[in-house]
Amino acid sequence: MRLQFAILLAMFAGCADPELQRAMDPGNDLPLGDQLANDEKADGTWGAALTCKDVPVVPTLRSPGILISIDGLTLHLVDAATGYDRVFPIGPGAINHNAGETSLGESLSLYPVLATHQHEFAITPSTIQPCKFWWTDPETGKKQPVFAGLPFLSWYGNFAIHGPIDNFRAANGGSLRRGYVSHGCVRMEAADILEVYGRIKGLARVPVHVQKEPERGSDGRRVDVDAPWIGAECQSDGDCGMAGGACHPNAASGRGFCTVPCTQYCSDRAGYPPTFCVADPADRAHGICVEKQLPQDEACRPFDALTARTLSRFGQPAVSASVCVPPA
Q1: 11 sits in which H/E element
Q2: Could you report the per-residue pLDDT of 18-35, keeping only the tens digit for each?
Q3: How many CA atoms lie within 13 A of 154 on its CB side?
Q4: Is 206 in a helix, a strand, or coil?
Q5: How far is 96 from 183, CA to CA, in rounded Å?
Q6: Distances from the Cα of 280 to the Cα of 97, 290, 299, angstroms
Q7: What is the enclosing helix (H) or strand (E) of 23?
Q8: Host H or E run for residue 210
Q9: pTM
């Protein structure tokens, strides 16, 4: 595999494609992407980051496939042979704003699709590290055990599925921010990457399909995690599992989005952008909870026909925030 990488680098060196060099250089990691301030300390106090995490004892799947939906923020692991079917939240690559690069305007995780003009990739035993610790900054040489002893599943050169990076010193391997946060790899919750690895280890080849669009079922419904949150696409109140959840209509899409009523403040969920209470556009006498617009969700990109607008807090008009709501 390393020889193949070296050949590819030699072939494309004249193209001066920085994304290709980052993707295929076997001697270097990809840049890390967004990192919490407390995690940036390279003070030698690594907590549990240098401990290999226990892989659950679960049946190996017989013929699994993985579908990564970048704008859906999901990884879907399916095995028709056994009936296994589970959707996991992910943190793919940040949106690329570097002029002239292949993935300009798209998630950095979409680079392999754009560069190869294909959507089909694979994980094999030779591209798996069951317990990876160290990341080396390709620019400074700084080393940190951000991979926290979790599996590292490469599907295209240095592009891989791995753990959450945030809070990597924690006993469980850290916590995921669901959004555009990495430099191209696909981040997962620590327990989720262990589940995926436990289900596919030992298999000769696991196909990986990568697409930009949210995945949809044969009925047109968006494929999402079992516990949707504020802003998730819905067709009825029953699709919104949070306490008090309701499916609010959105004329811009013809589909609804999940929300809960509020009078001034809203509850937040770990790993998601903070929420904010705004006047219901359909009935301004009442408030609804929406997500704030942050770089993590890149101008409300994961949401179905929601856009970023600056609105006042319901019941407290002096306070405002940029939030994800239907177009005006």
Answers
A1: helix 2-12
A2: 777 666 766 667 777 777
A3: 19
A4: strand
A5: 9
A6: 33, 10, 20
A7: helix 18-24
A8: strand 206-211
A9: 0.91
